[in-house]
Amino acid sequence: MKVKIDTRPLIVVLMSRWWRFPVYVLLGYLLYHFHGMTPPEGLSVQGFRALVVFLTCLVLWVTHLLPLPVTGLFALIAPPLMGVMKAKEAFSFFGSEPVFFIMGVFILATALLKSGLSTRLALHLMKSGSKSPKRLVLQIMFASALLSFIMSEHAVAAMMFPLLIVITKRLDFIPHGGSYGRILFLAMAWGCVIGGIGTMLGGARVPLAIGLLQEAGNGTITFIQWTVAMFPIVIVLFIFCYFLLTRFYRIDVDSVAEADSAIDEQIRDCGRPLLEEKFLALLIVGSIFCWMFFGATLGMATISILAVVLLFMFRVVSWEHLQEHMEWGVILMYGGAIAISSILNSTGAGLWLTQKYVLPHLSSPWALIVVLSLLTILLTEAMSNSAVVAIFIPIGMSVAKQFGLDPKVVVFAVASASGLAYALPMSTPSVAIAYSSGYLKMKEVIPPAIVMAAVSWITLMLTARFWWPILGIRI
Amino acid sequence: MNLGLLKLQLLHHGIRAGKDLPSPLTNPFGLVHLVLPEKLPVSVHLNQNGKESPFTLTREGDGFFLEISGGDRLPVRWTPPLKSYQKKTFSGLMVSDILTVHGDFIAVHPSHACRFGQAGLSCRYCGSSKELSQHPPFTPRDLVEAIKIVLEEKRCDVVALSSGRVDSEDGGVERLSKWVTEVRKHLNVLISLDLVPPATDEWIDQTYAIGVDALYYDTDFFNPNDEPKKDSVKHKARQLEALAYAAKIFPTGAVLSHLVVGLEPLEDTKTSIDLLIDRGVVPVLAYFPPYNGSQIQGRWTADPEKVQELYAHLYERLVKTRITPHWVQQYDVVLTPLEGRFFSAQPPRYHLKLKNFYETGLGRTLRFGLASLRRHLRVREVPAK
After folding, report:
1. Taking residues B39-58, what's their average pLDDT?
2. CA within 20 to 30 Å of B223's CA: A24, A191, A292, B324, which one?
């Protein structure tokens, strides 16, 4: 890091650096003000205050006034401070099963990256892609999507990124020098996005959504149920994305023969698979098998934490490495989100809000799904997808109950839609990583990204209409 | 009596010691600390240049007087030399080997000779000389301890460090950064650095970011050919450029530059004053009569009476441009720009009141707080390219 001195007028610097403090003071005042207010008719005092806490968290999530994990912690302390419930009760929501499932999955992903197994898998999946430029695009998309089935999409993008840099350098591409480099980085980013919704492991938003479902007492969704429900969406979007990338942008190279030698060199550098890698591969396959067939009985978190224990028993990863590379903040964010959602549900505030303000505007369960999924896809472009899930799932489940609709449908619709962000760097980490290559310009990415988002929403709606009923998910 | 002129004359002639004066009368460096009326501090050499001085320090009871040839007599305050100088740090070094106190400034002895010292001259300002190597080396821990010893005896606001003469691209800031960091870590003081202009402006940003509050890049001469150690014209251009940039980075008045009086025509010095003030820099006129036998003794032509006009010009320009000159270090051995008011009919606007306010407890707290706040707001870390 180097230093830069901000020479703008001091008042301007002061405003730009400290504008948050007046907002914090205002939020604090509003919390105090609402704390003393009489609740509206039909809503208990606790419910009213829970709603105030939820809205405050919503503001903090949307504006990033505080880091997301810190807002998660605020969601735990605000209810006891506002007199919604005792501290012991509020903090107990943090100990929900999905939080530990997410923790286990993230630890496994960190181990995959550290061992080099994920890199080895990616390289083998991209091998022989040099037969044609289109084939290389396809294989990069395939590798990214397939790996996003077993580890979080942002970890896949972070792992794929240096490999693509090596390939583009070997092909003598330069940022903004032509459109093929852009296609390769978008293939990686969008491959991750599409693969990320394929299973519960592609990101923490699906476990978060299922956690909210469980905490509200609405049952659960198994690993197989989720994967099967998403299968057509993943296939259709994968194929469409490939055609869109290779048709929308001009392929301005004739040969990518050099890419193979770069990939071969990388494979050679990886050396032979170590015992740790083999064990890790076995552990991942075993965990996925257990999640699919014993997830409902043993519990998803139990399996993921057991896998972590085995990871350390066989010394595949050290705790020091994990401490350094693991995104612990995500756990805090999800713990807080689940807590505030549960509090909203237990105090009846969610029900009141939907009866009063949402239901009168929706004519049918279908309208609910259409509106929720569309809003989710739009908002997730500009917001953290987990924040979108934390906002829409509690409200959506309350409305679904009013319509007599299974709340699981809301989880399927919102959690999948929240992962389908393609255009902006702040939408998902994988798109941000692709932008950091220097090959992407926003004005060149946005048009096909809009098409992808539109097709994603239509595909989601068609799947909900024709595929989910076959699986017993009826709207 | 013009107190400004009196101060210059004292700096020029030194004083003689009368009878019954306390002992020790001077600090370890041979300077007598006096405060003239209007709180005007001056540190004077005893029997300057071995010549007869028109000034004699006398004592009557508890009072001290400055007797001037011709019969005039002026009450002054004599400040006893600090006892701290005789104390030792944990490693056994005398405090006087590490620093000198000038009013509320602590001047740290440079580990490398300045441009005057390197040219074989004795620098009155930083104490640098050919004999500098005789100073025992000290560590940052020694320095912090020495400053703490001084602060226990006397209130001081600013610690001034000097890089000495360096030829590196950074202008000496890297050499001093560990000292700055250590002082900043342990003590609540303001820090002033005397450096050589660096090759690029990034080093100026770096200097401010490490915790430096005021900065000196010395211009010394308008004509580089007049310098004891000649610098190129290209170097001079970079010097002015660096000063102008630093004036944008540091608080108003916290970028200063010495101009040596008496070794080039006064008109040239005047032009230098204008050049610096136009760039937002505070010029400090170094009125240092050469020691006896010095190489430059024959060239030096600056009697106190001749240079009054220069001080008046400096003061009037500063007041007009609203630059606050409160960062002048070692103000007991120079006549500060604000003290140039004694040669001008123009009253100071708010400058004098502000200076007096900064000397109060509240003013000091406010000054320290604002300096920290400004740095906190302005310094930003950005990823390296």
Report:
1. 80
2. B324
Residue B130 has pLDDT above 60, yes or no: no
Residue B50: is its pLDDT beyond 60?
no
Residue B384 sits at the chain A interface (C-beta within 8 Å): yes
- Tell me the helices (H) and strands (E) count for chain A, helix number first: 23, 1
Distance CA B294, CA A448 (A): 80
Ranges of residues in chain A with a pLDDT under 70 are 129-130, 176-177
Answer yes or no: is pLDDT of B385 > 60: no
Q: What is the pLDDT of residue B312?
A: 95
Q: What is the mean pLDDT of residues B122-145?
A: 69
Chain centroid offset of residue A376 CA: 12
Query: A121 with A167: CB under 8 angstroms?
Result: no
Topology, domain B83-370: TIM Barrel (3.20.20)
Question: Helices (H) and strands (E) in chain B — how many of each?
Answer: 10, 14
Distance from CA of A30 to the nearest CA of B (A): 28
A64-87 in b/e form (b: 16+ CB < 10 A) is: eebebbebbbbbbebbeebebbee
Contacts of A34 (CB under 8 A, 6+ apart): A48, A49, A52
Could you tell me the CA-to-CA distances from B243 to A6, A127, A158, B338, B379 in Å, in that order?
17, 58, 45, 21, 19
Pick from A348-362, B111-125, B321-335: least confident? B111-125
B270 CB burial (10 A radius; 0-12, 13-18, 19+): middle
pLDDT at B112: 61
**Confidence bin at B133 (pLDDT 50/70/90):** very low
Is A7 an 8 Å CB contact of chain B?
yes
Which chain A residue's Cα is nearest to B381? A3
Quote the minimal CA–CA distance from A21 to chain B in Å.
14
- Whether A333 contacts A68, CB under 8 Å: yes
Q: Is the pLDDT of residue B230 over 60?
A: no
Question: Cβ of A12 under 8 Å from any chain B Cβ?
Answer: no
Residues 6+ apart with CB under 8 A from A62: A383, A387
DSSP string across A231-251: HHHHHHHHHHHHHHHHHHS--
Percent of chain B with pLDDT over 90: 47
Residue B257 pLDDT class (50, 70, 90 cuts): very high
| pLDDT range class, residue B337, cuts 50, 70, 90 | very high
> What is the rounded distance in angstroms from the CA atom of residue A22 to the CA atom of residue A15?
10
Q: Which of B374, B377, B380 sits opposite A3 (nearest CB)?
A: B380
Are the C-beta atoms of A221 and A408 separated by less than 8 Å?
yes
State both tokens at A285: 């396959």
Q: Which long-range contacts (CB under 8 A, 24 or more apart) does A17-21 make?
A: A17/B377, A20/A65
Spell out which residues of chain B touch residue A10, defining contact as CB-CB under 8 Å: 374, 377-378
Shortest CA gap A438–chain B (Å): 14
Contact between A123 and A151 under an 8 Å Cβ cutoff? The reply is: no
Q: Answer for the pair B36, B3: CB distance below 8 angstroms, yes or no.
A: yes
Which has the higher per-residue pLDDT, B374 or A152? B374
- B244 to chain A, any CB pair closer than 8 A? The answer is no
Dist. CA A110–CA B173, nearest whole Å? 42
pTM (two decimals): 0.69
Query: Measured between CB atoms, does B70 come within 8 Å of chain A?
Result: no
Q: Does the pLDDT at position B231 exceed 80?
A: no
CB pair distance less than 8 Å for A3 and B374:
no
**Which residue spans of chain B are classified as CATH 3.20.20.70?**
83-370
| Residue in chain A nearest B247 by alpha carbon | A7
Q: Which of A1, A6, A17 sits opposite B383 (nearest CB)?
A: A1
A5 at the B interface (CB within 8 A)?
yes
pLDDT value, residue A307:
93
CA distance A459 to A436: 29
